Amino acid sequence: MKTDKKLDFEELMQLARESAEVTRSCSCAAESFREWTRIPVSFPNQQMRVAGTLLDDPYTEATYAECHPNGTNYWSVDAPIALRHFPYNRCSLLQCTVCGRCYLSYVEAGGYYVEPRIRELDPRLIVDAECDS
């Protein structure tokens, strides 16, 4: 489940708009994915395909700077999906092969653990600009 296709802003927005229009029920859908969440064991990974990556250059260390211009934080439901900032600059885009919903995913690597995380791709929150926070 890997692809190195770098998604540009328009491709990402198109997938986000299509994902937001999905209304059918599916085992991948969960209200708790609106903010960054640990991928639960029950998540149907077998239904996911990697639609692309947001990583610019795999040989250059991406920034760890976050973007929160309106007082949000990493865990906020309304935190911007700031493509040039952490953790979005390290994400893969997963798309459900059953319903078409899209999710951002990356692996958080802490001191003694790794934790795969997921967040729904909400087109209203996507920004492709530098951040002042």
Q: From N to C, what is the helix and strand string? A: HEEEEEEE
Poorly predicted residue ranges: none
Helix content: under 10%
Strand order of the largest sheet: 1-6-5-4-2
**Overall spatial form:** globular
- Indicate how many domains the architecture comprises: 1
Distance between the termini: 34 Å
Structural class of the secondary elements? mainly beta
Rounded radius of gyration (Å): 14 Å
The residue-averaged pLDDT reads: 91
β-strand number: 7
Provide the β-strand percentage band: 15-25%
Report the total helices. 1
The largest pleated sheet is described as:
5 strands, antiparallel
Which terms summarize this structure?
133 residues, mainly beta, five-stranded antiparallel sheet, 9% helix
Task: Describe the structure concisely for a colleague.
The protein is mostly beta strands and 133 residues long.
Structural notes for this entry:
The chain is mainly β and 133 residues long. The protein has one domain (9-127). Helix content is 9%, strand content 24%. It is built from 1 helix and 7 strands. A 5-stranded antiparallel β-sheet has the order 1-6-5-4-2. Strands 3-7 form a two-stranded parallel sheet. A hairpin with a 5-residue loop joins strand 4 and strand 5. The chain is globular. The N and C termini lie far apart (34 Å). The mean pLDDT is 91.
